[in-house]
Amino acid sequence: MDKLRSYDLASLAELLQVKLDGDATIKISGLATLANANEGDLSFYHNPLYFNDLLKSRASAVIISPQQADNFPGNKLIAEQPYICYARASHLFAVNTQENYGLAESAHIHPQARLGEKINIGNNTVVEAGASIADGVSIGANCVIGRNASIGKDSRLDHNVCIAHDVVVGQRAYIYSGVVIGSDGFGFAKEGEKYHKIAQLGSVLIGDDVEVGANTCIDRGALDDTRIGDGVKIDNQVQIAHNVEIGDNTVICGCSAVAGSARIGKNCVIAGGVGIINHVEITDNVTVTAMSLVNQSITRPGSYSSGTGLSNTLEWKKNIVRFRQLDSMAKSIKKYLTTK
Amino acid sequence: MDKLRSYDLASLAELLQVKLDGDATIKISGLATLANANEGDLSFYHNPLYFNDLLKSRASAVIISPQQADNFPGNKLIAEQPYICYARASHLFAVNTQENYGLAESAHIHPQARLGEKINIGNNTVVEAGASIADGVSIGANCVIGRNASIGKDSRLDHNVCIAHDVVVGQRAYIYSGVVIGSDGFGFAKEGEKYHKIAQLGSVLIGDDVEVGANTCIDRGALDDTRIGDGVKIDNQVQIAHNVEIGDNTVICGCSAVAGSARIGKNCVIAGGVGIINHVEITDNVTVTAMSLVNQSITRPGSYSSGTGLSNTLEWKKNIVRFRQLDSMAKSIKKYLTTK
Amino acid sequence: MDKLRSYDLASLAELLQVKLDGDATIKISGLATLANANEGDLSFYHNPLYFNDLLKSRASAVIISPQQADNFPGNKLIAEQPYICYARASHLFAVNTQENYGLAESAHIHPQARLGEKINIGNNTVVEAGASIADGVSIGANCVIGRNASIGKDSRLDHNVCIAHDVVVGQRAYIYSGVVIGSDGFGFAKEGEKYHKIAQLGSVLIGDDVEVGANTCIDRGALDDTRIGDGVKIDNQVQIAHNVEIGDNTVICGCSAVAGSARIGKNCVIAGGVGIINHVEITDNVTVTAMSLVNQSITRPGSYSSGTGLSNTLEWKKNIVRFRQLDSMAKSIKKYLTTK
Fold first, then answer.
1. Cross-chain CB nearest to B290 (options A166, A293, A302)
2. Interchain proximity A97–C303, CB inside 8 Å
3. What are residue A268's DSSP bridge partners?
4. CATH superfamily of B7-92
5. Which CATH superfamily is domain A108-304 in?
6. Predicted TM-score (pTM) of this structure
């Protein structure tokens, strides 16, 4: 690793705007969990599960709530919300992971593309005609920004990212390597046994502060646009089909798939490996647990699940035989109880 | 968006070879759903669910069946199959989304590659020795066409596509960004605790009129080839393992996975997130619903499913406990009923 | 295909260090299954399922165990473990699929990158400052090797691979096209409805002899590192989240997802499409069958499963209604049996 920046505790308290309790001159050069922290590390305590780690931690300083502060005798940064304070602190110790390319000589930037100021475009990246790259955007190597696509201010794209024509990405987006946005939706008209492709004339509109994880795909709409709200966080390997709409601040974890024209509300949490079938609507504030299949609309906030839970394979084999008999079993019981 | 082409209704009727009923001179500059259409838009009516939208539509013209034509007072294109007519019309309003690169200067085309006529090869794309690119093929940026691979006439590849050595792609294929075809199958021989890699000596053979969605992978065969039939449509993020065979006109939706040596028949529909285990055989005309696990061969046409359906998480937790007791529960019932 | 190498049977016996029984001068120019072998092909017999194929095989020679040797009258290579012998033989017939680029002129190799000897770097590949590429490494086209990342001896990367800064890949790795290693883990701190990104300060450490399939993602850790043991084999489209640890010689099949901080032991087999939720621990020697959800830790070796098995969709619909009534049904039965 590059040598991370180092701070004295007083500077950290000021940068994070929290109260300091302890030795203001101590040097902090890293962040670590309570259990793994060594001298020079800052740590944080936010979860009672780690109370024993707190007592034994070798961290030079700990971010801690005022209520818990007495439990740590060492140097402290006192924060009402230690986990959020840790999130802020993390950026103080992050290396700038994107190379400073400027406009790489090997990049292919069309003369009719519009570029803002303080832009970074990596090697071999292609920016097509009419594309618009706002101020402060940083794009890695081997990307393609399609015709008339637009990337909002201070957004960052890693490497090998494909943004198709006319796609709109908002401000402060973070798009990881291998992402494909604006590929054609999967739309066909069947005639006999053959499928005729339907040209996908919509686009993809992505709000501000959106994160799109590595190798995720978001398809363009058939006629209307696929829409991703502000503050949406999408993990790796997620598939968002054409004409999906996702409300603000919804989180979608890895390997989930959202089929065509499904609508997900605001502030939802879709765990990993979830499947959401086409045309269903999910209201705001819904949680769907891992690997569930949402095969109907969800009209009330709450948590939803499917699956059988895990079993030993031999027992499971017996139980799935019974699962297939479940309806007839239920009928027998009902009949028996009724005839008594 | 680039300004889309505009047509008068008479021209559209001629291009689509359908009967016109109404004002032949009206200008049509876009396609839209009945609900969202505005002046200048063409729309289509094919599903009774949208009957109210039809009555209220502001579309300048509607594609409609002869049986339904009386229900729309405005300008009409009369088509026996309005949805197929819409599919055809969609292409009249599509922009050409692939840049016209010609043979990009930055492309690396091996002197021993064979190129047909009217070929488009994008920036930084690598075409290795012995590769064959037929007439009318259009390839985007940052692709790799491996040694002796062959791409059939009028096929299109988007960006960052990898076609490995000796893979054969048929005519009129559409391969989206991030696709990897011809990676090694996942084959090992176990000796003690260690795995020895088995070289994958087969290839991938893809028929005509195949679509392969973004970030999908199709592995090469171990000894024989992996085979994808004519007219097969594969969505995004699908995984096709080594030696799989897929019959003509089968559709595989997003995030499905087909394990090694599985065989899928013709005219099947594999919905999203489906898993098909290795060596199973699925006959023709089978539908598998979303997120089902096909853990046995399917010998009769029809629709197949697995999973539990969605529940509230608290209720679900109670029910999965009972699922694990299902076999013993069934036995108790049987015993009780028998001993009565 | 390029013409494969051809061997006489005596040379093959020597190269594979096995006993020859038959005509030592016969020419072998390919490998094939017993059923598909023709003159000039070597085949292998290891599974009684293929006994009839053995009897009818047209192979010019067969790899066979001493116990079974009498069942094949033709030329034989006698190996204690025919399948492992086949695995070794497969490499004798493999073409070298990576182009010999040397250091491609169009590659962007930072002057501060450290390169070993006998290195192959493909077109347009970017190697950033401080990156270290050991002896014998072969990298395809359009890859990015991030700052201070390190690739161990004799490793091979295909095309469009992204290795982020500071990631460590061991020796003899095989990393397929489209892989992304070292993207940020999916970590946020929630404040009100908004999510604050947590900088991911850990890295990814990958042992020796690891295979990573096409379009797979492995995220970097939040504070500590994500760790992949020696001999681990990961298939295509797998998602490994931040701070996951995977023990030596564990196999993870296609489309599986391992959520944050999960730990998988040694010598496990995780089948395709499996989901493993965050923070669970799986002990050594565990098998998880296809598409199972591991939603709890597994402390005992063995095989584990979830799901319902496959049914006809109409029957399935009835049974999933009953699944939702399972707990109340079980209670009714219990009550009835108790009150008798």
1. A293
2. no
3. none
4. MurE/MurF, N-terminal domain (3.40.1390.10)
5. Hexapeptide repeat proteins (2.160.10.10)
6. 0.96
